[in-house]
Amino acid sequence: MPKLADDLRRWTESSRKRIDSVVMTPWEEQVGRVLHTGDGVATVSGLPEARLDELLVFESGARGMVVGLGETDIGCMMLSDPKGIVAGETVRGTTEVARVPVGDELLGRVVDPIGMPLDGGEVPACRDFAPIENPAPAIYDRALIERPLATGVLVVDAMIPIGRGQRELIIGDRGTGKTALAVDTIINQRSSDVICVYAAVGQKASSVARVIESVRHSGAPERCIFVVGEADALPGLQWLTPYAACTMAEHFTARGRDVLLVIDDLSKHAAVYREVSLLLRRPPGREAFPGDIFYIHSRLLERAARLSPERGGGSLTALPIAETQAGNISAFIPTNLISITDGQIYLDPTLFNEDQKPAVDVGRSVSRVGGKTQAPALKALAGSLKLEYAQFLELEVFTRFGTMVDERTRKKIEHGRRIRAVLAQNQFSPLSLGEQTALLAALSGRQLDDVPLDRIAEFRAALPRWLAEHAPEIADLDDRAPPITDEKLGQLRQVLAELADTFAAPDPEATE
Ligand SMILES: Nc1ncnc2c1ncn2[C@@H]1O[C@H](COP(=O)(O)OP(=O)(O)OP(=O)(O)O)[C@@H](O)[C@H]1O
Ligand SMILES: [Mg+2]
């Protein structure tokens, strides 16, 4: 019996010691509460230390991102299904910004902006994650843009060349071939080492499927990432898409690779942001867009750059797309984007309806950087093309009214029509640098003047084989090769004249 009492006493003592050793300190956690929710946004009270872009976790497991800080409440954009959320439930801050998976595992995949697969495959097994917002490279981390990014579209490569690391806006009305031009550029990268990231914002699923299908069919899909925020996805996810795509692209840029980022399109992105801002009752500004609409696009596009050799020498080229209403490029969002980017390619609905495709309006398009990067072989031949073409367009308008023209003017117009025919190009048929150089050489050497207009396309189709056989050094031309010497140019024109002869209309006098 005394043993039992002894045991009991010892046990009580040890328990008391253990209890005494527990230090009870207060523990602080900020908890907010949902005020109201709906339409893909939520308003939260509390969380005084929440920061912009911070990720919030709701009691029901849903996630959201802070987009507005009011005096008494926080505006939050939902990033996952908000269905179960009710007013009054608790919300916790994470002190982190949203992160997305990055890495080689994403190549060839179709993912949503948080890296979840949309192609029916497994979740990409990425080991690295990176924040969706990254500061743009500082000036001393950048290098001059020197190499061209070949689009394979002659009118762009010859007259509005784009450099690796540049930001060039593709702008035009609905259905003028904006996506087609960007997709052709992606497809042309099958013959380069450039990695392509296509960000679809607010697009119909069928349009995105068409883009993916064409790249899979004609391009190098194993070097592409498709980041899709469809039209029926949450506004938050649509908004996130270009930033997530940019982060995925930067992963490769930081490793010295050249990357092309297509954002299709920023008008829809702005509209989604306007929708979210209005729902969160932020004060509307011009065209009802919130005051920071310029900033959200500039901080995104500023991330495109060519990095200095110390930072690996990679580059991020951005091709944002913007839609205009009735050709109005001076509307709010188009002017914003034009002022942020290093030039724009304007696609004209009139040209498109006249079947001049790609419908690039050369007069209203400009590339403020790319001219210095154009492949020397092409640059030497493209110099006078823009001027000649502009003069022709003016003359053509003049002669439309049946004006009598002299022989010199008639020849100029005939030549201009050939320039136009050469610049017309079908989708999915990118031209190599050699083919582009040969076409420009034939134009400026007037070898095409005897080829009927409706046979120019045939001439172009026959060109690759003809060059491979008769001028192999032109067929394999590199964008860093020096300009072609006069002697070589003469030989090339001779070769082209022979090909042109096979298409030329028979001379009526000769047959008599
Ligand atoms: N170079 C071309 N040759 C032949 N057809 C073309 C060419 N470019 C575009 N098209 C055709 O024009 C149509 C519209 O093109 P696309 O969808 O690229 O335009 P968009 O400006 O992106 O339209 P949206 O404003 O609806 O996004 C498509 O059917 C496409 O096949
Ligand atoms: Mg489009």
Structure described in brief:
With 512 residues, the chain is of the alpha/beta class. It has helices spanning 2-21, 154-159, 178-188, 205-218, 235-253, 266-279, 293-301, 332-340, 349-353, 376-382, 385-399, 407-423, 433-444, 456-470, 472-475, 486-503, 508-511; strands spanning 31-38, 41-45, 54-58, 63-69, 73-78, 90-97, 99-102, 110-111, 128-131, 169-172, 195-201, 224-229, 258-264, 315-323, 343-347, 366-367.
Q: What is the CATH topology assignment of the largest domain?
A: Rossmann fold
Mean pLDDT: 92
Q: Oligomer, anyone?
A: single chain
Let me know the CATH homologous superfamily of the largest domain.
P-loop containing nucleotide triphosphate hydrolases
Q: Trace the largest sheet across and list its strands.
A: 8-12-11-13-14-10-15-16
Q: Into which percentage range does the β-strand content fall?
A: 15-25%
- Give the low-pLDDT segments: none
Compute the separation of the termini in Å.
Answer: 139 Å
Task: Please state the CA-atom Rg, rounded to the nearest Å.
Answer: 30 Å
Question: Could you explain the architecture of this structure?
Answer:
By secondary structure, the chain is an alpha/beta fold. It folds into three domains: about 30-95, Beta Barrel (Elongation Factor Tu (Ef-tu), domain 3), CATH 2.40.30; about 100-375, Rossmann fold (3-Layer(aba) Sandwich); about 380-505, Lysin. It is built from 17 helices and 16 strands. The chain has helices at about 1-20, 155-160, 180-190, 205-220, 235-255, 265-280, 295-300, 330-340, 350-355, 375-380, 385-400, 405-425, 435-445, 455-470, 470-475, 485-505, 510, and strands spanning about 30-40, 40-45, 55-60, 65-70, 75-80, 90-95, 100, 110, 130, 170, 195-200, 225-230, 260-265, 315-325, 345, 365. Strand 3 and strand 4 form a beta hairpin. The chain is elongated, with a radius of gyration of 30 Å. Magnesium ion binds near residues 178, 179 and 264. Magnesium ion binds next to helix 3.
